[in-house]
Amino acid sequence: MRKIIILLTLCLTLGVAFAQNFNQAQALKEISAAAASIKTMQCDFAQTKSLKMLGDKMVSRGQMWCEQPNMLRWQYNTPYTYTFILNNNKVTVKKGNHSDVIDVNKNKMFKEIARIMMNSVLGKVLTDKADFKSSVIHKSNYYIVTLIPQKKEMKQMFTSILLHYDTKLKLVTKVEMHEKNGDRTLIELKNIKKNTPINASQFKIN
User: Which has the closest alpha carbon to 10: 179, 174, 195, 199?
Assistant: First the structure.
């Protein structure tokens, strides 16, 4: 769960605004600039986890809500219920009827998660070389951004993260996370809405 939460939020709020003459460095700047213009975002998602050792796949579905500068709700609905809520410096993790509240300033792991989340919301993640090395390629109707982890903790979990941007919708529609053990997680975003009001209760910490 921790792996999904850390990286999932890297791309959820990034929009795309590319120049006609493709230039990798310029494209990264334009992606970040477009991301900064997104104040709120909500969508449905389907997550497929491919296990290398078992040759099996696990599919889960849910919803996401995000609001600048520091609020996020990531909610799994099927085949199980699990919710992660970030509100300022507090995090709530809910599983079934049980929930835990964590102060990110007192927990190193969650503080790092929150920092990466906020960098994503503010559009800084693609130009922050301390966290990831970024590159962009053009393929059909997509621009694919490859992120290579630079920090030790992230390197221990992931070899690469690929963000798929639909050049027509100008939004991310897929995220691929390649783990060090050979497992792969694909997250597909659907019914995306940006800059529409979100009820404050979605981010309530309790």
Answer: 174
* Centroid of chain to Cα 198: 18
User: Is the backbone peptide bond immediately before 79 cis, with ω within 30 degrees of 0?
Assistant: yes
**Burial class of residue 12, CB neighbours in 10 A (0-12, 13-18, 19+):** buried
Nearest CA to 40 among 72, 8, 7? 72
SS3 174: strand
Whose tokens are 């970024």? That residue is 134
104-115: per-residue pLDDT in tens? 888 776 666 666
Residue pair 107/125 in contact (Cβ under 8 Å)? The answer is: no
Tokens 């993790």 found at? 93
Q: In the structure encoding, which two tokens stand for residue 38, read together?
A: 């997104």
DSSP E strand stretches across the chain: 40-51, 56-67, 71-78, 82-87, 90-95, 98-103, 132-139, 142-149, 158-166, 171-179, 184-194
CA dihedral 145, 151, 155, 160 (to 10 degrees): 0
Neighbours of 126 (CB within 10 A): 25
Q: What is the pLDDT of residues 2-12, one digit of tens each?
A: 555 555 555 55
Residue of 85, 83, 43, 76 lying closest to 58 (CA atoms)? 76
The answer to whether the CB of 62 falls within 8 A of the CB of 77 is yes
- Whether pTM > 0.70 for this model: the answer is yes
As a whole number of Å, the end-to-end CA separation of the chain is 20
